[in-house]
Write a structure and sequence with these properties.
The protein has about 350 residues and is of the alpha/beta class. It contains 13 helices and 11 strands. About 35% of the residues lie in helices and about 15% in strands. The chain binds pyridoxal-5'-phosphate (PLP). The site of pyridoxal-5'-phosphate has 13 residues, from helix 5.
Length: about 350
C-alpha cells in the first residue's frame, strides 16, 4: 500500500468539524415501539411525516453486501453530482487548490470547479481517448488535490486502459476519483476491488443509468473509511430523502431485473452500432463500453437539427475537444432505436 496522508489533503476548516447531530442521529430505533417527540414532526402518519434516516442504514447494508465493501466505506448522496460537490468542499481550498480533468469528459467536473472557485486544470485525452500520463504529471503540483478519471468515459464511451489507471493511482499524490457512472454496462471490472491497495482512490457510482432511477437522485461514493468520515462531516444531514431510500432499496434488491435490462440494452447497442456504420454520412462509430454510442458524421450540427425535426433528441458533441462532428446516441428501447435508424436513413436523401 502506498503511503498517503489524508489529513494533509483535507481543508483546514473541515478537519476540526463535528458533523451536525440531528434528532435522528442521536436516537436510532432498535425496532421497539417508541413515542417520537424529539424532532418537531407532525405526528399524524402518512408514510413520510418522519425525517429519513440520515445514514441510510438499510439501503447501505444492501449496497455494501452487493459491492463487497463495508458500510463504513459508503456515502450516499442526492445523485453522484452531490457526491462530487462534497469532494470539492472537503478537499479543495477555493482560489488555492486545483483539480485535474481530462476532456472530452463529463461536464459537471468543470461546472463544480467554477461553483467552488477551484482551478480546473485540463489535460486533453490522447487521440485514442486515453489519459496522457506524462502531461498529467507535468501539470500536477502540490496544490493538485483531485484527479478525475471517468471510466467508461462520457462522451467517448471507452474505459481507460487498466495499466494507465494503475500508473495514475500509483503516482498522483492527491485523490483519484474514478467516476463509474457506466460501470454496469462495462466489460471491465470495477475499481472498487482496488480500494485496499490505493488509499487515495475514490469510486463514484449512481443509480441514474443502469438502475433506471435517474428521477430519484441516488449517488454512491465508495472509499476508505477515513475518506468517508471526512465527507460525513460536511454532508447535509437529510441529503437522501425517504422516498428515494425506499425506491432505491426495492430496486437494488431486484438486481436480476436490472441485469436483464442491462443485457437487453447491450444487445441493442450491438445492433445499433452495426446499423449506424451503414448510414452513408456516418464515417466512424467508436467502440463503447457504456449505454451510448459516439459516432462521427459529415456535419454534426446539420444532422442533429434534422433529427430534432423528426422528433428525436440526441446529443451534439461537436464543440468538445477531439469530438469534431460527433453525435452521442443513448441506446433506447428496440422501438426507439428503430425510429432512430429510420430517421437517419431518410436523412440520407435530404439536404
Ligand atoms: C450521468 C452521469 C453521472 C450521473 O450523475 P447523477 O447525479 O448520479 O445522476 C455521473 N457521472 C457521469 C460521467 C455521468 O455521465
Amino acid at each position: 500500500m502506498k503511503d498517503f496522508n489524508l489529513d494533509a489533503l483535507t481543508r483546514e476548516n473541515v478537519k476540526g468539524l463535528q458533523p451536525y447531530s440531528s434528532a435522528r442521529d442521536e436516537y436510532v430505533s432498535d425496532g421497539t415501539e417508541m413515542v417520537f417527540l424529539d424532532a418537531n414532526e407532525n405526528p399524524y402518519q402518512n408514510g413520510v411525516n418522519r425525517y429519513p434516516d440520515p445514514q441510510q442504514r438499510t439501503l447501505k447494508a444492501i449496497l455494501a453486501e452487493q459491492k463487497g465493501v463495508g458500510v463504513e466505506n459508503l456515502l450516499l448522496g442526492n445523485g453522484s453530482d452531490e457526491v462530487l460537490d462534497l469532494l470539492y468542499r472537503a478537499f479543495c481550498e477555493p482560489k488555492v487548490d486545483n483539480v485535474i480533468t481530462l476532456p472530452p469528459t463529463y461536464g459537471m467536473y468543470k461546472v463544480l470547479s467554477a461553483i467552488n472557485n477551484v482551478e480546473n486544470r485540463e489535460v486533453l485525452l490522447t487521440a485514442d481517448f486515453e489519459p496522457n500520463v506524462s502531461a498529467i504529471a507535468a501539470i500536477t503540483d502540490a496544490k493538485s488535490k483531485i484527479l478525475f478519471l471517468c471510466s467508461p468515459n462520457n462522451p467517448t464511451g471507452n474505459s481507460f486502459a487498466t495499466e494507465t489507471m494503475h500508473q495514475l493511482l500509483e503516482n498522483f499524490k492527491g485523490l483519484v476519483v474514478v467516476d463509474e457512472a457506466y460501470i454496469d454496462f462495462s466489460s471491465t471490472q470495477s475499481w472498487v476491488s482496488q480500494l485496499k491497495k490505493y488509499p487515495n482512490l475514490i469510486v463514484t457510482q449512481t443509480l441514474s443509468k443502469a438502475y433506471g432511477l435517474a428521477g430519484i437522485r441516488l449517488g454512491i461514493c465508495i472509499a476508505s473509511k477515513e475518506i468517508i468520515s471526512v465527507l460525513n462531516k460536511i454532508k447535509p444531514p437529510y441529503n437522501v430523502n425517504e422516498l428515494t431510500q425506499q425506491r432505491a432499496k426495492e430496486r437494488v434488491l431486484d438486481i436480476n431485473s436490472v441485469k436483464q435490462e442491462v443485457s437487453n440494452i447491450m444487445e441493442e447497442k450491438k445492433t445499433l452500432s452495426k446499423v449506424l456504420l451503414e448510414v452513408e454520412y456516418v464515417s466512424k462509430v467508436y467502440t463503447s463500453d457504456a449505454n451510448f454510442i459516439l459516432a462521427k458524421v459529415d456535419d454534426a450540427t446539420k444532422r442533429y437539427n434534422q433529427l430534432l425535426k423528426k422528433g428525436i433528441v440526441i446529443r451534439n458533441r461537436t464543440t468538445q475537444p477531439l469530438c469534431e462532428n460527433t453525435l452521442r446516441f443513448t441506446v433506447g428501447t428496440p422501438n426507439e432505436n428503430t425510429q432512430l435508424i429510420n430517421a437517419l436513413n431518410q436523412m440520407n436523401t435530404e439536404l
